Amino acid sequence: MEQLMALAQTNNCCIVNVLHQNKSEADHNMRGSIGTELTNKAFEVFTCEYIEEGDVFKVSHTLSRKHRLKKKLYYQLSDEGLPEETVDYQEKPRDAKGRWVSSATAKTVANSEVKWEAFNQRYIHDHAWNIPLLFEDALENKSSRPYRQLMAATMRLGGIKDKNYFYTLLSEAEKAGVIQLVKHPENGETWVKLLSNQLPI
């Protein structure tokens, strides 16, 4: 650690170390004695976690010797493998031990007395989804979008926590002629095309 700190000071540079965390739900510290020493000497510590349900990565600022950032950063990888920020991603809640907490599906909530947030009210009226509007907003003024990006955007906009329920809405949108699943001509990746907009991919 002293040698790394001396190198950073001599060369006036930042040295970034990447380590795995412990797998225990109760202990997410950096692994091993190296992890302990790096944590003790580090100026800044960030943790990165993959959230499978939304196909996004979450970055949290966990330690700082100066100013700690409270806001978490969410991002996805583009087709070129570059990070792209995902704005206002709604993460599924966890309990005190870090385990996922089960939440009601959008269908269950729609039939309950739970008060909907403003973004949900935009897409649901009398317990029925406005599917064209939901998918049009999720495409963000584009004629088509990669499937995984559209899925994350749709679930975020609609407050949908259950992937299976998203698949149901996607199927209904296809049957209604709102969208169409297509293969990208260059990389063969699945994209979702808005049928009301005939611009090419």
- Spatial sequence of strands, sheet with the most strands: 1-2-3-4
CATH fold group of the largest domain:
Arc Repressor Mutant, subunit A
- The Rg value, from CA coordinates, equals 21 Å
- Mean pLDDT comes to 78
Largest beta-sheet details: 4 strands, antiparallel
Global shape = elongated
User: In total, how many beta strands?
Assistant: 9
* Discrete helix count: 7
Highest CATH level, the class of the largest domain: Mainly Alpha
User: Segments where pLDDT lies below 50 for 5+ residues?
Assistant: 102-118, 197-201
Approximate strand percentage: 15-25%
Helix-strand sequence: HHEEEEHHEEHEHHEE
Helix content: 25-40%
Termini separation: 50 Å
**What structural category characterises the helix and strand content?**
alpha+beta
Number of domains: 2
Q: At CATH's second level, what is the architecture of the largest domain?
A: Orthogonal Bundle
Description:
With 201 residues, the protein is of the alpha+beta class. It has two domains: 2-85, no CATH class; 106-194, Arc Repressor Mutant, subunit A, CATH 1.10.10. Helix content is 31%, strand content 21%. The chain contains seven helices and nine strands, in the order ααββββααββαβααββ. It has helices spanning 2-11, 32-41, 106-110, 118-121, 131-138, 147-158, 163-175; strands spanning 44-51, 56-64, 73-77, 83-85, 124-125, 128-129, 144-146, 179-183, 190-194. The strands form three sheets. It has a four-stranded antiparallel sheet, with no helix packed on it. A three-stranded antiparallel sheet has the order 7-9-8. The protein has a two-stranded antiparallel ribbon with strand order 5-6. The longest helix has 13 residues, at 163-175. The N and C termini lie far apart (50 Å). 17% of the residues are buried. Residues 102-118 and 197-201 have low confidence and may be disordered.
